[in-house]
Amino acid sequence: MSSKPLVIVGTGLAGYNLAREWRKLDSSTPLLLISADDGRSYSKPMLSTGFAKNKQADELVMADVGAMAEQLNAEIRTHTPVTRIEPDAKRLWLGAEAIDYRDLVLALGADPIALDIPGDAADHVYAINDLEDYARFRAAIDGKQRVLLMGAGLIGCEFANDLTSGGLQVSVVAPCDQVMPGLIQPQAAEAVQHALQALGVAFHLGPVVSRLSRDGAALRAELSDGTVLACDAVVSAVGLRPRTQLAAAAGLTLGRGIAVDRQLQSSAAHIYALGDCAEVAGLNLQYVMPLMSCARALAKTLAGEPTAVSYGPMPVVVKTPACPLVVSPPPAGSAGQWSVEGEAPDLRILCKDASGALLGFNLTGGCVSERMALNKSLPAVLA
Ligand code: FAD
């Protein structure tokens, strides 16, 4: 048996789920997990439901790093960024320290896109993409009230709902004409926006924040349409970019993420990738269900049984309880016709091809209960 470890870089849902799945199949090969963060196990989707539940960051932790190391029979190095990979030597570097691996898995996640906003208040802009970000934002808004939220995509809408339910006053600013553009149909977007407005969210769709300045103890945001908003903190939810820098420097092929095939194998031997950082057979899907499927398939491959990942239908449940929403986008490039049934907020919006076969759907309000039945007719995302 090789004494070199399987090394997994990243202790998010991708890294820890892979470790768990692989340990079911191989209980003895050494396992080393390396993380730039504190290695606590948590479920990232809970970050956008924490304010309504009044949860501190520590209350979202499922297991500390010691418990994870014991559970996985693994060594876990925390606050230790991997700085370089040498694929030909099967070696990685932690600063000046070298580690040889049997196989290397990159589960590096994605970076929030940071906007460069003129003004003197950039340090009051928070992206909430991990537990430590969540803790920082909670501390910053403690005792304060007004949040300006940049971005009206899925995560932006979830935060708008959650922060408002948690007692904060939220204004959403985004340069689009509907919420979740590109993801949902206009009728569904309208239903969600109306429900969030009824909850108290103010929308400024169209302009961007063109300047952010300090104004005494508060902030002053100037929008590109001339509106001026006062707020106490800004949350940025304008998108995530797969972390590819390490892989790029090591000469790995990139797409919209670290390019891997259906066995999660990168362009370099013995290096694999999964989760938000990976583009799997052309798809970079930043959701939990795909990474769970990848973890199960990759665990088998790493245990000696080469296994291709497949994805069935994977509808996304958007956590906007003000207007429940489930979305299954039609496959990219498919030609379908959309039809709208029902009355807001209870909408059944279906996309079908010329033969009447279901390609995708948006379900809102009471219609979300039809999701399981409709799932049976959906095409697989990766057959
Ligand atoms: P991450 O959890 O980001 O983990 C990346 C890891 O890599 C971290 O441990 C980091 O420290 C480490 N790392 C990075 N670079 C280095 C380095 N150089 N050296 C060492 N370690 C490094 N999806 C759903 O399906 N349903 C939902 O309801 C949902 N809600 C969400 C709500 C929010 C607010 C957000 C932000 C996302 C949500 N998602 C949801 C998406 C889902 O949570 C992510 O797809 C998933 O958690 C990504 O896991 P990951 O392990 O790939 O990345």
UniProtKB/TrEMBL annotation:
The protein's required cofactors: FAD
Location of the FAD/NAD(P)-binding domain: 6-288
Molecular functions per Gene Ontology: oxidoreductase activity
Record's keyword terms, sorted: Cytoplasm, FAD, Flavoprotein, NAD, Oxidoreductase
Residue span(s) of domain Rubredoxin binding: 308-378
Gene Ontology CC, one term: cytoplasm
Signal peptide: none
Keyword Flavoprotein tagged: yes
The family this protein is said to belong to: Belongs to the FAD-dependent oxidoreductase family.
Name of the protein in question: Rubredoxin-NAD+ reductase
Organism whose genome encodes this protein: Atopomonas hussainii
